[in-house]
Amino acid sequence: MEYKDFIKINYKPSDNELICLFKIKPAKGISIKEAASRVAAESSNGTWTALRIPSHIKALSAKVFDIKGDYVKISYPNELFEEGNMPQIISSIAGNIFGMKAVNGLRLMDIKWPKNIIKSFKGPQYGIKGIRKILKIKNRPITATVLKPKVGFYPEEHAKHAYDIWTGGVDLVKDDENLSNQKFNRFEKRLKLSMKMRGKAEKKTGERKSYLINITAETDEMKRRARLVKEYGNEYVMIDILTVGWAGVQTIRNVCGELGLAIHAHRAFHAAFDRNPNHGVTMKVLAGIARIQGADQLHIGGLGKLAGGKKEVKDNYDKCMQELDNVKRVFGVCSGGLHPGITHRLMNLLSTDIVIQAGGGVLGHPGGTVNGAKALRQAINAYMQGESVTEHAKKHEELRTALKSWGHKTPI
Ligand code: CAP
Ligand code: MG
User: Fold this and answer.
1) Each residue of 76-97: pLDDT tens digit?
2) CA 365 to CA 164: how far, in whole Å?
3) Using a 6 Å CB cutoff, which residues line ligand 1?
4) If you ran DSSP here, which 8-state letter would residue 399 be given?
5) Measured in angstroms, how far is the CA atom of residue 146 from the centroid of ligand 1?
6) Separation of CA 148 and ligand 2 centre (Å)
7) Atom 1 (ligand 1): residue with closest C-alpha?
8) How far is the CA of 44 from the centre of ligand 1 (A)?
9) Strand pairing of 18-26 and 103-112?
10) Cα–Cα distance between 105 and 99 in angstroms, integer?
11) Domains and CATH numbers, the chain
């Protein structure tokens, strides 16, 4: 068994094989075919030298079955994978290969998953339909606001801002990815005070409100925090899915299943994998995994302050929405430098089945947090009523101030 044995052009994979699409930039002196064969070998049953192997092991070879320019499709026999074990699957198809000297660049573009593997994970508990039911919001985008500054508020200050965000008209208050249980803002105290304010805000507005509280930590600690979240009566937990890792996400999905909590998935760390267009793993691959694992809503980019253009954001959104056996559709969360002057671009590009998250674009409002929240909601209302934000702003002072302050430009 040597490298060339992994090339089977025109082979027709069956439905139960896993298929990866790679973009490969071979190293100098290596053909695309050679590079592709090494990817298939390293991620299944080959190595750097020829091996004499029995036929039952030969049957486990991955096969390069399509090469078009830089794009290569490889199929993997189902038997290579352990059901319900995402770390094992990722170690197989996206493990050593990224360090191979035979490639200058290698990018995992997309994955087609076999049914049995999809089924071996729980998938989203709520998805878009379930979340809309919890929040009692039929058609418009869900709004969310992360407190800024990211860190430093005392729990009392945090809860007060949360109240302002909710009563201004935003549905979800969000923790930032690096806020967990620091000395200045202990998790349980923050949760307790915020839940109290949530009750008051719901009473005042007559709307459902909820809190995307960040439980990111070591796994046992995350479980403990998820239980606390349930005890205090909240509906959601937030986790930083990539720093926690897929095993941690799975554990939390199991716990959230028992507790009936929804999962907000923050993707901090993703750009370390997906930013270089010639290397790493695309966000749409990560989005697909997060959905199979069971996130109910997932950051997908927002055409704002962070990298990722229209095509990428749309690809990520499509992964959240595409038909995938019986796996529920999940909310793409648009975030990063958003403010009322630019949110309509996201609804135009995607749909109103998204979460629109603005932190600085609410707390940075010259009139303060309540007015910032009002302006964000007004921007959404404008879109839903088929009116431009500029037109709507003529009748709404908070929106007018926001547009005066930030215009319609994307921050860098
Ligand atoms: C947004 C945010 C999010 C980013 C993450 C931040 O704040 O809280 O972490 O959106 O990126 O800290 O930057 P602002 P993405 O609303 O103040 O920009 O959503 O692309 O995963
Ligand atoms: Mg953040």
Assistant:
1) 999 999 999 999 999 999 999 9
2) 12
3) 146, 148, 150, 176-177, 267, 299, 301-302, 305-306, 335-338, 357-361
4) H
5) 8
6) 9
7) 336
8) 37
9) antiparallel
10) 9
11) 3-119 (3.30.70.150), 127-406 (3.20.20.110)
Output the residue whose Cα is nearest ligand 1's atom 15.
Answer: 301
- Res. 305: pLDDT tops 90: no
Nearest CA to ligand 1 atom 5: 336
DSSP per-residue string spanning 321-352: HS-BTBPPP-EEEE-SS--TTTHHHHHHHS-S
* Mean pLDDT, rounded, for 102-127: 98
Quick one: which atom of ligand 1 is closest to the CA of 270?
Answer: 21
d(Cα 104, Cα 107) in Å, to the nearest integer? Answer: 10
Nearest to 296, CA basis, from 256, 331, 334: 331
Residue 202 in 3-state DSSP? helix
pLDDT, one tens digit per residue, over 200-250 is 999 999 999 999 999 999 999 999 999 999 999 999 999 999 999 999 999
- Among all residues, which ones are annotated catalytic? 148, 266
Q: Which residue would you say has higher pLDDT here, 97 or 305? A: 97
DSSP string, 9-39: TT----TTSEEEEEEEEEPTT--HHHHHHHH
| Cα distance between residue 88 and residue 42, in whole Å | 14
